[in-house]
Structure formats: C-alpha cells, structure tokens
Design goal:
It contains 11 helices and 5 strands. The chain is mostly helical and 270 residues long. It has a 3-stranded antiparallel sheet, covered by helices on one side. It has a two-stranded parallel sheet with strand order 1-2. The protein starts with a helix and ends in a 31-residue tail after the last helix.
C-alpha cells in the first residue's frame, strides 16, 4: 500500500542521511548539491478518507500512520489525513496524539468536536468553509474561513505540479513512482479484489434501483463503505449506463432504467 511504500521511503532516506552525516532533508540536499547530485523532493501523502482504511486493516493502518507522523518530517515527508466520520474508532488516541495541527469543519455534535479538537465548538460552525484551526504553536483555537476551489482550479493546479517535474524516459531507474504502483498493483487487480468489487457492484445496482436515485452518500449508508469506494462504484454505474451523469453538487444521479429496463423519471434532490 501507499503507507508501506512511504515508510520504506522514509527508512531509505534516513539511511542516506546517516551515510552523508545529515540531520534533515535541507542539510542533505545542500550536501547533494555540492556533489552535483539531484536533491530529494518533498513528499506530501494525503489520505482522503481515513475511515475507509480503518475499516479494512485498523491496526496496520494506525501503526503506519503513527510511525510516519512521528519520524518522517525530518526526511521531508508530510502526512495529511481527513475523514467525514470523526469517531474514536477512526481517529484513535494514538493517531490524534501525533497530529498537533488540526482543522475541523462543521460537525453534528460536541462529541465529534472533542474527537477532533479535544474541545467543543465545531458543532456551532455555520458550514460552507467555516472552520476551527488548532495550531501546534498556540493553545487557542482560530476561527477561519476556507475558500471554495472549483474542479477547474484543481485541474490547473495539478497540471502545474505535474509540469514542474517531468518523468525522464532515459533514466527510468531513478524514478521512484513506478515502484509505488508496482507495490499497489497486486492489491487492486487481484482476483480476490475483483470478486469483492463485483459483489458490491451488484448490491449497489439493487440499492439505486430500489431508491430510484443514486449518490455517493446513499451507497455509503446502504453498503456501509467509505467515500472512496462509494465514489468508485458511482463511476462504474455511470460507465455501465445504469445512472446518469452528475447534474449538480446538490443533486442526486438519475437512475436510467428500472429492473424491467424501463426508464425512470429523474429526481431533483436526495
């Protein structure tokens, strides 16, 4: 998995630092520049939905996250985790202790606010980017306004990042990324994973037809799965022509055919 690759990369960098006599990434890159070598890049690992990982392998995920959070900063590796379900079985005490900088958007209860920030307050936020920020340098929470970023802006930003570091075809051995996908490939395309995906897909088809509507949140509730897997199932359903395309951020997907193949009327909202 990505977390395993990240821990291996962290250990590899520490071995390089030890040989070079460097304490951190900045010191190592200065030494590398003096020798005419390529510097090591910063790496930011983002977990979009922690709950999805904790449902699959909680102990292994917790151990990897804690190790990266405790040790990887000096090697230039940083970790950002997010979840829509801030419960104690997802954001465990060990994980929370290793993340002094935290952000909470609007939550439904004081309990959820305490899980994230160790204090109530987030349940009173107004939504639409209203958030509380806990800084490791201050004991007081800061109330901030997050900005809305459109899909087009995200695409431009990602393309900018991709254009900054192009992959060299002449020296593929120096590219780190292929080893990452090589590690992940058996997990994603294995026969066992395909069987599980097929079973979930059949259940997803039944649920959207029964509800006469389709959305990521619907599949999350009905199938008890995380956001990433639900979003992937929605994409597959659209590719198979079972549901229509997205018509807006607050609208559910149209189910194009019922059990008998007849067209179903669209719904405006969930």
């Amino acid at each position: 998995s990505v977390l395993k690759w990240t821990t291996r990369e962290m250990d590899r960098r520490y071995r390089l630092f030890s040989k070079a006599g460097a304490r951190n990434l900045d010191a190592y890159n200065r030494m590398a520049a003096g020798r005419g070598e390529k510097p090591l890049p910063y790496i930011v690992v983002i977990i979009d939905e922690l709950a999805d990982l904790m449902m699959v392998s909680p102990e292994e995920v917790e151990r990897s996250i804690c190790r990266i959070a405790q040790m990887a900063r000096a090697t230039g590796i940083h970790l950002v985790i997010a979840t829509q379900r801030p419960s104690v079985d997802v954001v465990t005490g060990l994980i929370k202790a290793n993340f002094p900088a935290r952000i909470s958007f609007a939550v439904t209860s004081q309990v959820d606010s305490r899980v994230i920030l160790d204090t109530p307050g987030a349940e009173k936020l107004l939504g639409r980017g209203d958030m509380l920020f806990m800084s490791p340098d201050s004991s007081k929470l800061q109330r901030l306004q997050g900005c809305f970023v459109s899909d087009q802006e995200l695409a431009r930003l990602v393309n900018h990042w991709k254009g900054m570091y192009t992959v060299s075809e002449a020296q593929p051995a120096e590219v780190v990324q292929p080893s990452l996908w090589g590690d992940m490939e058996p997990v994603q395309v294995g026969a066992e994973g395909e069987g599980e995906e097929d079973a979930l897909l059949e259940r997803a088809i039944e649920e959207v037809r029964a509800a006469n509507r389709a959305s990521i949140s619907l599949l999350q509730r009905r199938l008890r799965i995380g956001y990433s897997r639900a979003a992937r199932l929605i994409d597959i359903l659209e590719e198979k022509g079972i549901i229509g395309p997205e018509e807006g951020p607050a609208r559910t997907r149209r189910v194009l055919a019922g059990d008998d193949g007849s067209a179903l009327p669209p719904l405006d909202s969930e």
